[in-house]
Amino acid sequence: MAEISPDMSFAASDAASREQLLAKVQPVDVPRKELVTGDKDFHWVTEKICGIPESKTPRWWWIMFCVAGFMATFTLFGLTWLVTTGVGVWGLANPINWGWAIVNFVFWIGIGHAGTLISAILCLLRQKWRVSINRAAEAMTIFAVVCAGIFPLFHVGRVWFAWWLFPLPNANWIWPQFRSPLEWDVFAVSTYGTVSVLFWYMGLIPDLGTMRDRAYKAGKLIKAWAYGAFAMGWRQSNRHWSNYEMAYLLLAGLSTPLVLSVHTIVSFDFAASQLPGWHTTIFPPYFVAGAIFSGFGMVLTLMLPVRAVFGLHNLITQYHIDCMCKIILATGSMVGYAYMMEFFIAWYGANPYEGFTFINRALGQYAWSYYIMVGCNVITPHLFWFKKVRENTALVWIICGFVNVGMWFERFVITVTSLANDFLPSSWGYYSPTIIDIFTFFGTFGLFSVLFLLFLRFLPMMPMGEIKAVMKKGDAHGHGTGTQGVPHSTTGGHH
Amino acid sequence: MAKHTHDTYGILAEFTETPAFYEAVGKVKEAGYKKFDCFTPFPVHGLDHQMGIGRSKVPIFTAIGGVTGFCTGMLITWYMNGFNYPLIVGGKPFWSPIFPFPIMYELTILLSAFGTLFGMFATNLLPRHNHPVFEYEDYIKCGDDTFFLVIEKADPKFDLEQTRSMLEQLGSTKVEVLKA
Questions:
Q1: Distance (Å, whole) CA A56 – CA A255
Q2: ipTM over cut 0.90
């Protein structure tokens, strides 16, 4: 017998008329995608996910870790050079005082947005496929924010005064200026980082409890103590789950306006200025769409190798990859639309400076970067219209690489072209990064990889509870696929 | 009256199938038990209703955090830019609730999030690192693939023999007495 939809229940007030109605309309059982394939049970999920951090450290992990650690030293070197010499070691010179530092900051912050989209917005939208990727994507968010934070922090020049950004009393008795979008950014990004950590940590608590119990059972007491300290004595009680689920929903509801506000405020850094090419109202939605686009690119860049290495094909199925590719396609189209609309408004607005800026982007001295951006962001995602492309994992991975590159160039085009050729031709300039710029940025990929590898090694990379809840076996009524199934048995009404 | 000593915490019944467990919980509630709990590897949908648990109190903590955050944002921007060190920017008023809105917005979310997490700990009375259920020899299974239904001795309807036989009849795969 098929499920009756909750909206129809008013028409079938008692069981008899419900039966009659069902006989009349003959509803079809709509098959739902199985989110965990291969007819697996709960125990398999536990063993698979806990098995990764519990097993012996594989050789490839050490190799990757050493390579990533070596890469990270480039950032350390670049920053040490900067602090000991001065911010002039970056290629910044009038009129371009926002070079790679801001480009890299916006790039990394944007990467983070996919993690929050998966954990918060897709949770509110009841997209259950999110459960097998949300933990890793949230980790990616936090590590991306760490990488992003480095750039504005050191861009202030005398980094030891960076705490002046916060409204703390200092010897000069001067407070931050709250009209500045840059000050809004301090609040937006630090709130984003903090709330992302809180959300991620809360999601980890039940799994940390499981890791604690397994370590204890295996006689590894130090490990059990370490996991246990963070598990806060979680004991899987349903009276706890009840509050936990409410808190989870609330954090999802809080993170949704947060993530939208973060890139909106990042875009205000540009949009609230007077510069042609920046002073536009399309920036907030355009930046948010671009952030999600690049973030999903990075999620797939990370998760496809992880899936292959750990054999997670039953948990991250082709359906998951399809869903993510389609989000990249949708947000990529939004970004393409925004590029088009910027040009249209530059012409339609009839402002000669605005018009020049856009012609200059496409035909000027930075046209090469403009075409890299258009090629990567507007053309490549449209390959995802084809099922054959989405099913070719290697090709998906390569396209995601293009998305990452394209989105870095988008920020480069926005930041540099507008600054290089503004109102007065006498002050125009051409910006090139120095080797220190390149080292500092290159190294952040190492730092990001180090953090992600540590995450894979020490923490369960998927939320076991959430996955079990969407399995067929996890449904209390033996049909449906879990949390969304509406109970309608005689003993269990739905509240 | 059954023989149970003061060192009994309650009776624990194991279930391996979600639907059987779900039905059993409903029967236990119908039988009039109040002091019982379930230990599950994941939040079973609808189980709160089945157990008769009311709506969570966490949103109260979230709201307190949110209001505190919003007011803090208002207060610091007024105090810093309008009162303690008035800043003239573009000939505008020293303070208005409009321009520092992003500050209030972000602080509202920040403190709501802290309120939510700490509210979850407070309503759950965590951290608490000891509990009789941890002493159960197979405790590890409830983080894996088994559902526990625990009826406490403190429940007025608790009777060692009757409660045990009821749980056995409800399809439990194993019934054990938990020590306090």
A1: 36
A2: yes
